[in-house]
């Protein structure tokens, strides 16, 4: 599986990249913000996007809206990785088209399992 991890925090990108790709089963690319992530998605579409919600240049909601408006990227699953993981936040993000939400802080030892669990559930 090709995973694109978008987060403006370099430590989150590093830990997330290791957690998601450390077992060698998946290819993980990273982007430092929403605009860079959108460019990466358009140039080489991933199988799933894992993105932060709050980023300075293009936040996660604007990113998912841009993806859903483009027929080339509309079907790519988007999972948010955010500290805003309360039930109201999750419902709002699902209404925007998110496949799921992974809470921050996260346990790197189970991050991949949690992502795969979300992807197995029906949208």
Q: How does this model look, in words?
A:
With 123 residues, this protein is α/β, with parallel strands linked by helices. It has a single domain, classed as 3-Layer(aba) Sandwich (Rossmann fold), CATH 3.40.50.2300. It has helices spanning 10-21, 34-43, 60-69, 87-95, 111-120; strands at 2-6, 27-31, 48-51, 78-82, 100-103. Strands 2-1-3-4-5 form a 5-stranded parallel beta sheet, sandwiched between helices. It is globular.
Brief summary of the model shown:
With 123 residues, the protein is an alpha/beta fold. Helices cover 41% and strands 19% of the residues. It has one domain: Rossmann fold (3-Layer(aba) Sandwich).
Topology of helices and strands:
Layout: E1 2-6, H1 10-21, E2 27-31, H2 34-43, E3 48-51, H3 60-69, E4 78-82, H4 87-95, E5 100-103, H5 111-120
Helix pairs in contact: 2-3
């Amino acid at each position: 599986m090709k995973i694109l991890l978008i987060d403006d925090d370099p430590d989150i990108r590093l830990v997330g990249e290791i957690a998601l790709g450390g077992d060698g089963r998946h290819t993980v690319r990273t982007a430092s913000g929403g605009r860079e992530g959108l460019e990466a998605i358009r140039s080489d579409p991933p199988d799933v996007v894992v993105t932060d919600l709050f980023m300075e240049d293009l936040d996660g909601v604007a990113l998912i809206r841009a993806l859903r408006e483009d027929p080339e990227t509309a079907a790519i699953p988007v999972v948010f990785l955010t500290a805003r993981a309360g039930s109201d936040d999750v419902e709002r993000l699902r209404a925007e088209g998110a496949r799921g939400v992974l809470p921050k802080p996260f346990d790197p030892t189970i991050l991949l399992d949690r992502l795969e669990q979300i992807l197995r559930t029906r949208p």
